[in-house]
Amino acid sequence: MNTPLPRWQRRKDARPAEIIQAALTLFSDKGFAATRLDDVAKLAGVTKGTVYLYFENKEELFKAVVRETVVPALEFAETLVEEHQGAWSDLLWQLLSSWAERMEHATSSGISRLMIAEATNFPELARFYVDEVVVRSRRLFADVISRGIQSGEFREVDPMMAARAVTAPLVMIKVWKQSFSLCDTEPVDLKAFARFHFDLLVQGLRHR
Amino acid sequence: MNTPLPRWQRRKDARPAEIIQAALTLFSDKGFAATRLDDVAKLAGVTKGTVYLYFENKEELFKAVVRETVVPALEFAETLVEEHQGAWSDLLWQLLSSWAERMEHATSSGISRLMIAEATNFPELARFYVDEVVVRSRRLFADVISRGIQSGEFREVDPMMAARAVTAPLVMIKVWKQSFSLCDTEPVDLKAFARFHFDLLVQGLRHR
Amino acid sequence: MNTPLPRWQRRKDARPAEIIQAALTLFSDKGFAATRLDDVAKLAGVTKGTVYLYFENKEELFKAVVRETVVPALEFAETLVEEHQGAWSDLLWQLLSSWAERMEHATSSGISRLMIAEATNFPELARFYVDEVVVRSRRLFADVISRGIQSGEFREVDPMMAARAVTAPLVMIKVWKQSFSLCDTEPVDLKAFARFHFDLLVQGLRHR
Amino acid sequence: MNTPLPRWQRRKDARPAEIIQAALTLFSDKGFAATRLDDVAKLAGVTKGTVYLYFENKEELFKAVVRETVVPALEFAETLVEEHQGAWSDLLWQLLSSWAERMEHATSSGISRLMIAEATNFPELARFYVDEVVVRSRRLFADVISRGIQSGEFREVDPMMAARAVTAPLVMIKVWKQSFSLCDTEPVDLKAFARFHFDLLVQGLRHR
DNA sequence: GATGAATGAGCATTCATTCAT
DNA sequence: CATGAATGAATGCTCATTCAT
């Protein structure tokens, strides 16, 4: 039989993703506590009851948001490192610029701020995030630095420290933008900052 | 039998500071919304009613916390810049190391994370914080960079960009520590990082 | 074993009226401030939350009570005047007696006292009540008097003054009954008083 | 020794009266529940603690207000009746007009509305008020009517009913004025209404 | 599956009352 | 006597969660 499925049934599979997307938007903007499930539901085009059909409670929804949103982003970068040939500083720039790019458009880029705000209230989730995102991306950059050192392109520095020094500013600028965009009278362009940061970095990492 | 303890004491002068301190602790730890005034009161050794004796409502208490704790720290740094003589990179180090120092001990150092988390929910407060803290400290560092450029010590860069590049990593590391201290398996020493960051910076800012 | 009773039932249509009725009862008895929403809810057979499902807050509930209960009563009287034929004093009696009648039975008759008590605390509501009830009923009686004067049945008096003189005693007696029923050792019969008042009035209004 | 007493000691005797006066003002305006003791104290020029020096609690203060305010007013009228000679309708006018007069100026004239509002919450006080004011003034007028009937000046009516018919309108108009003065677009002059009411009455009471 | 009416625990806020000073 | 800091019970309101439909 090729009777088309009724409208709502076809939507069934899409529901969780739509709810997660709505929740991400609101959580990112207002934080966990200040977000009402009613609003999440409305934004997802369903009612409150439906949210509970797919998620046990607000906390589980929050966890799902983080889990679903966060992981895929890194895999792309990891393959980039894996397959890279050529100067390591070129790769560094590739990573930083594509990251800055994604930060400006991806809806998932609000997660950093959200996790920073809620980590202490969700220790289990914080651990997940740290493992899957923070440490992993730190490793990624540490890896690039290490290889650059091995190839003689960079001077000898602690790669993990360097990784922090590479990632922190970009995250921070993004987070600031999110938090204070309405009142900062001197907004930064994320990509311009990435470029500036990169220049500073490579000169700082070069042999003296 | 000794006289029974009085049920309470009049300590009008001490109360506000004690309440602010308690609020700072809890706000920093759990965020604004997740902090109950009952707990603030208990931690301050008073009852909820007393909190309302000194602060109009929860939001005003929040503002007071920010006002009282952040601003003084900056004033110290500003005089340091004013009175400085000698190499600008030395001043930069002085500022960064003393900042890192304070971050490790001062109870006020939780404010950054708090403001990041709550800014969008308290636009008015966010503006206050941006004006009084963010922009002001950015200016401070931009000033140091500018003078370093003028004296020929640093190469020509956009001072405001540089200021962001100087401040962001330290703030970010602190914020990360606060948020993920329980689950980060690779904790960082704030002062060591400050040193590392400084080295990278000065080499990055030097003429090539 | 029979099926356990459901914890609640969906009765969207019935709820608002039930809540208004409960609120009317309690407001009339204790006044606005002394009435707890918890009690209103209990009397309506729901919980506090449900009250807020239908009314934005306590004040809006109060307004709804007034709106729903008083206005309909007046409309009936207005049609009576419109359609009247015959002696105006007969109409006067009809109005007064039916009014007294309703006062004795209608649950809405507690509103006068309530409004008198709360008017200064709810200026907006007071205005609504004055426009929709006080002035309107005054006009109604002024109208009857005017026509009686035109027809030569009554002597020339200021109709608005007369209207006040007609309505005030009945309202006052009702209000007194409500307020002091428990302690007045000389209770009045409302309908008997209406009759007495009417007799006095028509003789007072007649040509000398 | 003729050393003058210290300032505050001289005030001691005046305090209760001042507090009662302040409380009367506020209770009359906002009702019992909506009046804060803090405001009473401020208006009386003392602090909250002082109120409790003279009155056990808010209820007792309320009772004192009613008791102190209410009684004296009637005594004057009673002597007037006692000593009257001449036409009873003249006395009636004297009573009504002086009453209207006092209503317009005496601060105590807000008590009626207050008692109407709070009677059911203060049954004991209601009884006191009914006995000392309501019934007593009703008797006063019933007395005048009775004597007028005996002297043949008025036709035979039930004097207690008539007393209600005499007093109710004046009280009602006053109460209305108080409650709705801010929004009534057709304000009445109390004395003009008293005159109108009197004219209606005497014609209504005259033999046909 | 989906809805949204109903729940009830939780919390901010108020204010009469107390009592150390 | 007088003050006003401190209390704590009371209550309006919110919103995550449940469940009858």
What would the keywords be for this entry?
Arc Repressor Mutant, subunit A; homotetramer; mainly alpha; Tetracycline Repressor, domain 2; 208 residues; 2 domains; DNA-binding
Task: Give an overview of the whole structure.
The structure is a homotetramer of 208-residue chains. Chain A has 208 residues and is mainly alpha-helical. Chain A has two domains: 1-55, Homeodomain-like (Arc Repressor Mutant, subunit A, Orthogonal Bundle), CATH 1.10.10; 59-205, Tetracycline Repressor, domain 2 (Orthogonal Bundle), CATH 1.10.357.10. Helices cover 74% and strands 0% of the residues of chain A. The first copy, chain A, has helices spanning 7-11, 15-30, 37-44, 48-54, 58-83, 88-105, 111-118, 123-150, 159-180, 190-205. In chain A, helix 9 packs antiparallel against helix 10 (190-205). The mean pLDDT of chain A is 90. The interface between A and B is large, with 57 and 57 residues. Chain B binds a DNA duplex (21 and 21 nucleotides) through residues 6-12, 15, 36-38, 46-50, 52-53, 57-58.
